[in-house]
Amino acid sequence: MKIESVVLDQWYPVATENMLVAGKVYHSQLLGQPIEYGLDENATFYATHRTTQAQLPVLMQHYTYWISLGNPPALFSIPEFQDSERRVLATVPVSVRTSGLRVVENFLDMAHFPFIHEGTLGEMPFTAVKPYRVDIENDEIYARDCEFYQPMAAFSHEGGMNIEYIYRVSGPFNAVLYKTCPLQPAKKDIVCLFVQPCEEDRSIVHMPMACLDDSASLEELRLFRQNILGQDIGILNNQVPRKLPLLADFEISTGADAISLAYRRWLNEKGVCYGTFQNA
Ligand SMILES: [Fe+2]
Which pLDDT belongs to residue 73? Predict the structure, then answer.
């Protein structure tokens, strides 16, 4: 299968920093190709194509190990990972039977919060998604002024409040969420969604975070987010079709879907085919 360069020439996550044991060799798949990676005896990250034995370009950034099967440009920046005040952690990766593009789209969707994440990210009867602004800047998508009532927006904060979100789609398979930090409302917690497309319809979800909570343990912070991610697995594994349709009229859309429509249009304009559903 010939993969278009807009997909091939990208960095892809294969692990977060907390997941690799030095000296252990890991086998996985990326864009249908068999890969192997790990930390060598000097704790240096490496990756190899298992068929051709070619060394692959590697990168360690945003608490994540990245590799590429092509010629990738510089990775997008997230300066908050350098902020010493923040706690940096990641969920245990989760494998799902769906296109990586579907995973990103689900991450961008606020409308499912009260139904799927009741008690944390949403609560009945607060189901309305207020209008928000979508812009394209430097070839990334930003959704600003997103606001949602959340009964427990973060581990160390019980009691509902309106939480402001900024979504940033930084690449076809990557998104970053900037979310009001209930403990420091002037600042925002960072939750990343970095997707490893193993095959067109199978993905691994990596979720590093940079949070401003210094009262909870890292394990408590991880479990809070891991449980939320766990609630999404059922939706992700049951998408029909598993690949993302890019045709605007294929699925019914409402105003709450402005970011999703912008994402599909942006993928279409970039010429992304891998992981999309072609109706022809
Ligand atoms: Fe969700």
Answer: 96
The alpha carbon of 48 and the centre of ligand 1 are apart by a number of angstroms equal to 33
Which comes out higher in pLDDT, residue 131 or 157? 131
* 111 CA to centre of ligand 1 in angstroms: 9
Domain residue spans of the chain: 76-277
Task: Give CA torsion, residues 70, 74, 76, 77, to 10 deg.
Answer: 150
DSSP class of residue 250 equals: S
Band of residue 154 on the pLDDT scale cut at 50, 70, 90: confident
State which amino acid sits at residue 100.
G
Give me the residues near ligand 1 (ion), CB cutoff below 5 Å.
232
* 162-193 pLDDT, tens digit each: 899 999 999 999 999 999 888 888 889 999 99
Residue with tokens 């009229």: 249
Dist. CA 228 → ligand 1 center (Å): 7
**CATH topology for 76-277?**
Naphthalene 1,2-dioxygenase Alpha Subunit; Chain A, domain 1 (3.90.380)
